[in-house]
Write a structure and sequence with these properties.
- The protein is mostly beta strands.
- It folds into two domains: about 60 residues; about 160 residues, no CATH class.
- Helices cover about 0% and strands about 45% of the residues.
- It has one helix and 21 strands.
- The strands form five sheets. The chain has a six-stranded parallel β-sheet with strand order 7-10-12-15-18-21, with no helix packed on it. Strands 1, 2, 3, 4 and 5 form a five-stranded antiparallel β-sheet that branches. Strands 6, 8, 9, 11 and 14 form a five-stranded mixed β-sheet that branches.
């Protein structure tokens, strides 16, 4: 129906860029607006600025009975999109190969991350996380700063131990620490001196079968507006050990 025009985006205020009349044709004209309304969020809106009142959907193969119930779906694909921003600042690098081989792996430390949030409306898009664990014997996640992403840590099946210290995951838009598709095993976790955001779910989501080995303490918990709040753990009746 409408076709793309060769328009240029104009920043109209501190958080909005407008592509005026980006789509024209078929009796329609629409502008595209991209917004960054808050930390970790990216919005796209299509604003109709022109419409032919004589437009007849039946000309496009729709039944006459559906004329008053049609819905418009907008799908956007980005080409040559930039890579997620990530800056590595090593806290310490062990030079002895023998010692390194004996250390817990993976070791994810001293990184700065700005990752894309989940795309609303797409069932196959999942929250991006700073660390994703599966079949992991032991992991150390230390001193990372995640300014934007879906969540800090996600764990799946056959995970044993996690050491999580001095990370800032307050920018999480989905959750702090949790399972993948509500399926995950993690026998022990030591979570201390972090900033954990709950996003739209939880600060900490524990395995439903065994959480006796989970210890948390001296963390700062924030909600979706970056306001300090109490720990929100799931399930609420878990055996997590909480230290103030």
């Amino acid at each position: 129906m409408a076709t793309l025009t060769n328009c240029t985006g104009v920043q109209v205020d501190a958080q909005d860029i407008v592509y005026d009349r980006a789509l024209v044709g078929g009796g329609f004209a629409a502008s595209v607006v991209y917004s960054l309304p808050d930390r970790g969020s990216f919005h796209q809106d299509v604003v109709f600025v022109g419409f032919n009142p004589t437009f007849n959907p039946t000309n496009w193969g729709f039944a006459e009975s559906s004329t008053n119930s049609l819905q418009i779906q907008i799908i956007t694909e980005f080409y040559n999109s930039p890579q997620p921003l990530m800056v590595t600042n090593p806290v310490y690098i062990e030079q002895d190969p023998a010692v390194r081989a004996s250390m817990a792996l993976p070791n994810f430390s001293g990184n700065w991350l700005n990752l894309s949030p989940v795309v609303p409306g797409y069932v196959n898009d999942y929250p991006g996380e700073a660390v994703s664990l599966e079949n992991c014997l032991a992991a150390s996640v230390l001193g990372n700063n995640m300014v934007a992403a879906g969540r800090g840590v996600a764990f799946s099946t056959n995970c044993t131990a996690l050491l999580l210290i001095n990370n800032d995951f307050g920018g999480a838009t989905y959750g702090g620490i949790g399972t993948v598709d509500n399926v995950g095993t993690l026998g022990t976790a030591q979570i201390f001196s972090n900033v954990l955001g709950e996003g739209v779910t939880f600060h900490v989501q524990l395995p439903y079968t065994n959480s006796f080995g989970w210890f948390v303490g001296s963390n700062t918990y924030v909600n979706s507006t970056s306001t300090n709040c109490p720990l929100f753990a799931d399930p609420a009746s878990s055996a997590i050990h909480i230290y103030q």
